[in-house]
């Protein structure tokens, strides 16, 4: 059985600022995970782990990879949870003075 979770919201920041919050290690460790290892293009690592990261408490278990990298516009990454490879995609678009964020997490 497949499962897809979708969520959208508008943030009071530009899409470039939001993309930086999603991809810069110093920012990610402030709000997302205790530890991160982030590359800068498709195929590069997008690893995150720590005691509060679902199914990735250690660096050895963090195998996430970037699947889409469009600065200021989109980020995608794979995330293995319980031996199931899932896909996360985040789309960003300017909306007024802010940014509309659309998140999609697909579990096959």
Architecture overview:
By secondary structure, the protein is mainly β. The chain contains two helices and seven strands. It has helices at residues 15-23, 25-31; strands spanning 3-11, 35-38, 46-49, 65-70, 74-81, 84-95, 98-107. The protein has a five-stranded antiparallel beta sheet, covered by helices on one side. It has a two-stranded antiparallel sheet with strand order 2-3.
Keywords:
108 residues, two-stranded antiparallel ribbon
Write the element-wise H/E pattern from the N-terminal end onward. Answer: EHHEEEEEE
How much is the average pLDDT?
A: 96
The total count of helices amounts to 2
**What is the helix fraction of residues, given as a range?**
10-25%
* Rg computed from alpha carbons, rounded to a whole number of angstroms: 14 Å
Tertiary shape: globular
What is the first-to-last residue Cα distance? Answer: 7 Å
- Within the largest sheet, what's the order of strands? 1-7-6-5-4
| Helix and strand composition category | mainly beta
Compute the number of strand runs.
Answer: 7
Short structural summary:
Helix content is 15%, strand content 49%. The protein has 108 residues and is mainly beta.
């Amino acid at each position: 059985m497949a499962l897809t979770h979708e969520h959208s919201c508008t943030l009071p920041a530009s899409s470039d600022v939001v993309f930086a919050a999603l991809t810069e290690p110093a920012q990610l460790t402030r709000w997302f995970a205790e530890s991160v290892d982030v590359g800068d293009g498709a195929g590069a690592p997008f690893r995150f782990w720590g005691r509060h990261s679902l199914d990735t408490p250690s660096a050895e278990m963090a195998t996430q990879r970037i699947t889409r990298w469009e600065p200021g516009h989109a980020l995608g990454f794979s995330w293995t949870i319980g031996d199931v490879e899932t896909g996360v995609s985040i789309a960003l678009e300017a909306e007024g003075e802010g940014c509309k964020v659309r998140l999609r997490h697909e579990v096959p």
